[in-house]
Design goal:
This protein has helices at 100-104, 157-164, and strands spanning 2-3, 6-8, 11-17, 20-22, 24-28, 33-36, 39-42, 46-52, 61-66, 72-73, 80-87, 90-97, 113-118, 122-127, 142-151. The protein has 166 residues and is mostly beta strands. The protein has one domain (2-164).
Length: 166
């Protein structure tokens, strides 16, 4: 579904390209399972926002943010960064590729943008390369941001949100 804002417990999730509100695709993610003592726990609030960047230029900036709240860096995972906060009885998180090591290793460079790091409510990306050269791989011409939230009444809420966004 193509939209320009998405409702979450931390207010609207929005994407701005060079300061202008932009449309993006949103879908539920199949990557929604966390294991506690080998028992699968499924989270129903797991989404992927995909931003088409094929028509952007070197130096363009993409800001992906929730409307409200204050998030903190949760450490991420392999090639991922994530931020987490607590809002309206939910643990809310966001995850995105953190390509610093990929960018400097030209043999394994797979994406034409860099994650400039997190803001207090999201992530900022910058286009580094001419995107027309990446048309053969559709994943190279999109930025994917994971959005996850779970009720803070569940003992595992923080763990599942952290895991699914990293």
């Amino acid at each position: 579904m193509r939209i320009n804002q998405f409702e979450s417990p931390a207010g609207l999730f929005q994407i701005f390209i060079n300061g202008q509100l932009s449309e993006f695709n949103i879908s539920q993610s199949n990557y929604n399972t966390y294991f506690i003592d080998n028992v699968p726990i499924r989270c129903t609030n797991v989404y992927e926002a995909k931003i088409d960047i094929l028509d952007l230029n070197i130096g363009d900036k993409i800001l992906c943010e929730y409307e409200d709240g204050q998030f903190f860096n949760d450490g991420g995972g392999e090639r991922m960064s994530n931020i987490i906060g607590e809002f309206n009885n939910y643990i809310v998180g966001m995850g995105a590729y953190d390509d610093v090591e990929v960018y400097y290793d030209y043999k394994t460079k797979i994406i034409p943008y860099v994650n400039n790091g997190h803001t207090s409510r999201g992530f900022e990306f910058e286009i580094l390369d001419h995107l027309k050269m990446y048309k053969q791989n559709k994943n190279d011409t999109r930025i994917t941001v994971k959005l996850v939230w779970e009720s803070n009444k569940k003992d595992y809420a923080y763990d599942i949100v952290g895991f699914l966004t990293s």
